[in-house]
Amino acid sequence: MKHVIALDVGGTGMKAALVGAGGALLHQARRATGRERGPDAVVADILDFAADLRAHGIDHYGEPASAAGVAVPGIVDDTGGIAVFAANLGWRDVPLRALLAERLGGVPVALGHDVRAGGLAEGRVGAGQGADRYLFVPLGTGIAGAIGIDGRVEAGAHGFAGEIGHIVVRPGGVDCPCGQRGCLERYASASAVSEAWAAACGDPDADAADCAKAVESGDARALQVWQEAVDALADGLVTALTLLDPRTLIVGGGLAEAGETLFTPLREAVRQRVTFQKLPSLVPAALGDTAGCLGAGLLAWDLLASTDRS
Ligand SMILES: [Zn+2]
């Protein structure tokens, strides 16, 4: 059976799958990224993981994978197949596409950005199905975005498109590692809410999920922390929708797991801020943490389709 290898490399874990036509997940596996062993060891592990998946395909589906797709964090040159920079993995200019192609017997390999790959999957087989224009915003350790346009995700001229987490929503506010102050991700990422709630409740181990629970039980301090995050997020999202006019806004990541505790006040906060703009439908992501891996598989299938055509 024809299939492709999909790999999503994260800061702590790698998710992999063999993906059949139409995005069917045939086989899934996970391994630790092991970044503490250094950037070269991580690359070697990725190549080993991919080779093992290729062997699994031969054993179970009678043929090796026809292509592979890999999603990685940081700055990615999709066209050149280079992982340009990933702070959490210590990577600089890793020619990952060429290394994988060599290890996988010369099959076509697509290299993509993790959030854009996740956005591609949400748009095609997840919460954005059928939307010609959408924005996918995962709220995790940081905040990123994927701009979906007619079945593809916009990378920008330099691979930076969609970085909504670094839109300034509180001028002169909290320092951000990017060098700016008052960036959205310093107020509305899961990490930012965890920090704010830990400080407010006095328990250093309390996190965003605990904050959501306290909101649900009517805790006034939690409500305040939560509303500040919701307001910052609405400010950022309204900037984005003013610029992009998406039909669907897909919000995912750890913070979105709070469900309607997040979405009900967020829809209201966005509604209050728009004047002439058309309100997009604001929906939770559907694919959870498999989005990046599925997206990597879709990139591989897209690559096969384009090589078949040429
Ligand atoms: Zn920033």
Topology:
Blueprint: E1 3-9, E2 13-20, E3 25-32, H1 39-61, E4 67-72, E5 75-77, E6 82-86, E7 91-94, H2 96-103, E8 109-113, H3 114-125, E9 133-138, E10 146-149, E11 152-154, H4 185-188, H5 190-201, H6 208-216, H7 220-244, E12 248-252, H8 260-273, E13 281-284, H9 291-309
Parallel strand pairs: 1-4, 4-8, 9-12, 12-13
Antiparallel strand pairs: 1-2, 2-3, 5-6, 6-7, 9-10, 10-11
Helix pairs in contact: 1-2, 3-9, 5-6, 5-7, 6-7, 7-8
Bound molecules: zinc ion.
Zinc ion binds at residues 166, 176, 178, 180, 183.
Can you give keywords for this protein?
single chain; about 300 residues; alpha/beta; five-stranded mixed β-sheet
Please tell me about this protein's structure:
With 310 residues, the protein is an alpha/beta fold. The chain is 41% helix and 22% strand. It is built from 9 helices and 13 strands. The chain has helices spanning 39-61, 96-103, 114-125, 185-188, 190-201, 208-216, 220-244, 260-273, 291-309, and strands at 3-9, 13-20, 25-32, 67-72, 75-77, 82-86, 91-94, 109-113, 133-138, 146-149, 152-154, 248-252, 281-284. The strands form 3 sheets. A 5-stranded mixed sheet has the order 3-2-1-4-8. Strands 11-10-9-12-13 form a 5-stranded mixed sheet, with helices on both faces. α1 (39-61) runs parallel beside α2, α5 (190-201) crosses α6 (208-216) and α6 crosses α7 (220-244). The model has no long low-confidence stretch (mean pLDDT 95). Residues 166, 176, 178, 180, 183 line the site of zinc ion. Zinc ion binds next to loops.
